[in-house]
Amino acid sequence: xxxxxxxxxxxxxxxxxxxxxxxxxxxxxxxxxxxxxxxxxxxxxxxxxxxxxxxxxxxxxxxxxxxxxxxxxxxxxxxxxxxxxxxxxxxxxxxxxxxxxxxxxxxxxxxxxxxxxxxxxxxxxxxxxxxxxxxxxxxxxxxxxxxxxxxxxxxxxxxxxxxxxxxxxxxxxxxxxxxxxxxxxxxxxxxxxxxxxxxxxxxxxxxxxxxxxxxxxxxxxxxxxxxxxxxxxxxxxxxxxxxxxxxxxxxxxxxxxxxxxxxxxxxxxxxxxxxxxxxxxxxxxxxxxxxxxxxxxxxxxxxxxxxxxxxxxxxxxxxxxxxxxxxxxxxxxxxxxxxxxxxxxxxxxxxxxxxxxxxxxxxxxxxxxxxxxxxxxxxxxxxxxxxxxxxxxxxxxxxxxxxxxxxxxxxxxxxxxxxxxxxxxxxxxxxxxxxxxxxxxxxxxxxxxxxxxxxxxxxxxxxxxxxxxxxxxxxxxxxxxxxxxxxxxxxxxxxxxxxxxxxxxxxxxxxxxxxx
Length: 516
Description:
Layout: E1 3-12, E2 15-26, E3 31-35, H1 40-43, H2 45-55, E4 65-71, H3 83-93, E5 105-107, E6 110-111, E7 117-118, H4 123-132, E8 138-141, H5 145-149, E9 157-160, H6 163-170, E10 190-193, H7 214-226, E11 230-233, H8 240-245, H9 256-268, E12 282-283, H10 291-295, E13 296-297, E14 302-303, H11 305-308, E15 313-316, H12 324-328, H13 331-336, E16 338-342, E17 347-351, E18 355-360, H14 379-386, H15 391-395, E19 399-402, H16 408-413, H17 420-438, H18 448-454, H19 458-471, H20 475-492, H21 499-506
């Protein structure tokens, strides 16, 4: 058979689009032509495939005109994930394996020159795409990728360590093709991979280590219970970073669908590991990160830190030091929970439902309002520093909390604070109550859902109208205060939002940048 078809997938954002590798052998001047909008990495597959087939002891058709088409032709393909399908197509076209049996499988994997299979990006995203398809083909992947893809429920994943492992499985019975083959592959090279429960839990820092700072701890509890964003402001060494690094421990366990989405995004960037399966991600990029690194971009589009923090925490320390363009790029994802990256020929959408935890100093020197250090900044310097966080961005942050420096006597003599375990129990109970009521966290409520689920008492409504008018709040600020009040009510076990809940929520709104 001179024509063979092998199925694989190409990644475009989180989508794993079906690709058919068509291989045709014909008489003529010997050549190896690869067409179908292949990237440089894919074009280099010609040499990898040639060497892998020959070093595995198989026959490469050097005397044939080889044409490989990657269909559809207008879909960009990148990385070495198509090495294995191309090699199998050549072997099937030359009659060394049974090409009719390949139709039940999809293949992905990079080949080394010796024929060993190496992992590729996006294996979990590929398995998720197969999970939603109607045909449900079997998936053949290299070691590491196979265990990753097997996490998807009801998936049929096979692991192959070497090209010969795949060839032996698809070679016709009684075929002499393997007589001179290299014995590099092991007996367990081809195996069905089943999901194995991962029980390893990374020990997170305990909130009991933080002494004092009752107001900041309360704000963290509210943020964890309702999915709200939070900004911590205070002098150097007051405990802002210490509090932020302990925030992830307050969040409830991830559901299976959340864990799969988070792991699929990490898989696209090659950052997924089985040890972190089911754990909420925490991303803390350096303040020199660009807008592309933060929200994603490139060609082909790759997810940024906000997508890698999907269903987790994005911690921005020294927030005013980030480039202005990077911070302003957070405004839409904070509202919508998604980020759309558009390029001239490509468009990709990534989920970005993260919890933003920001930390900043009140002024350039950091000691504005401190009782122990004198601030050396002029009012103009303070104004410029605080205005690095624009009004629209500040408006989208639900909780604004001051973290003052503790006196040394209180710091040394204060008892240990409340543990993460007890705080997490309250946060989990409040979030489960909200999910049972409305199917989403309070921070995700939109439009008419606010009126339906906030359940604001008449006295609280009057109080809100007067306060919002006097403070000059925008409609967005008012709605976000209502969401925070609903979370406070859930923590208190109240069915309706009362004046006391609303009054506490108002304490966490900052009407303007404070300077003195």
